[in-house]
UniProtKB/TrEMBL annotation:
It comes from Nonomuraea thailandensis. GO terms for molecular function: nucleic acid binding. Residues 186-196 have a biased composition (Basic residues). Residues 199-209 have a biased composition (Basic and acidic residues). This is Transposase. Residues 221-236 have a biased composition (Pro residues).
Length: 269
């Protein structure tokens, strides 16, 4: 840059884009060498407080808050969303208090310590032949239904640290999932004095044709003949008039006798 070379050519040497090169040049011209140091890209806490205070005072949208605070409108939107501020349509226009329920939940289930919660998932992936799949040969009858099977990608992600562990296995049976979780626990151990004890077994109930859990995979509290039972099924629909209980059986009230408005016959001769 000091030699008069284009910024795009200088940025390409370390593998940077032209936009990143110009951004670093602007930082250098504004702050000198201190401007080239790595800095936190998140929004400062005082800026978030100013945005929240402007929202409470103005009761306006991101565009007006951006003009009042000097923060980008998209950044204002992310700040309001991060702090769980409801939309203007869900608030009272005079007081600003929420008056409508929203689908957005401000409760976060991220735990404070590693090992408190482990997210488990299994992804079923079709195997690709050695000579290529349908993208190479099309969807003709000659390449369909070759029956080469599936691979099952088992993943375990720690809720706090986002540490991931994965294995490619041959099935997704209960015994396979339990063995995968056991291997994961051997590699990533919890602290010895963890504030929360391990949770109960929640693996799928074994089918009659599937083998029992081996002795090495059972916890000490689970006898060999007892398996974790499946949870009872929940309701599939909300109660309404069609699912309301029928009235009790019994005689119904009789009809009300009709009253005649015709004149009575005369008895005078």
């Amino acid at each position: 840059m000091f030699d008069g070379r284009p910024v795009a050519h200088v940025a390409a040497e370390p593998g940077l884009s032209r936009q990143c090169g110009h951004r670093r040049v602007r930082r250098f011209r504004t702050n000198g060498w201190d401007g080239l140091r790595e800095r936190r890209s998140g929004t400062p806490a005082d800026t978030e407080l100013r945005v929240l205070a402007s929202r409470a005072e103005l009761r306006a949208g991101p565009d007006q808050i951006a003009r009042a605070t000097g923060v980008l409108a998209w950044t204002v939107t992310r700040i309001l969303r991060r702090h769980g501020v409801p939309a203007l349509a869900a608030c009272d226009p005079l007081t600003g208090a929420p008056i409508r329920a929203t689908q957005h939940s401000t409760r976060r289930y991220e735990h404070s310590a590693p090992g408190d919660m482990i997210h488990l998932d299994v992804k079923k992936l079709g195997r690709i032949p050695d000579d290529g799949g349908w993208r190479a040969h099309g969807r003709s009858e000659q390449v369909r239904g070759r029956g080469i099977g599936y691979d099952y990608l088992h993943t375990a992600i720690d809720d706090h640290s986002r540490l991931a562990y994965a294995e490619v296995l041959t099935d997704e049976k209960g015994t396979t999932c339990a063995a995968f979780l056991t291997r994961r626990r051997r590699l990533v151990r919890r602290p010895r004095h963890h504030p929360h004890p391990p949770g109960t077994d929640r693996q799928r109930q074994e089918l009659p044709h599937q083998p029992r859990l081996p002795a090495g995979l059972r916890r000490p509290g689970n006898p060999p003949e007892i398996h974790p039972t499946a949870l009872p099924p929940g309701p599939t629909a909300n109660p309404n008039a069609s699912t309301a209980p029928w009235p009790p059986n019994g005689p119904t009230a009789g009809p009300t006798p009709a009253t005649s408005n015709a004149p009575r016959p005369s008895t005078h001769g």
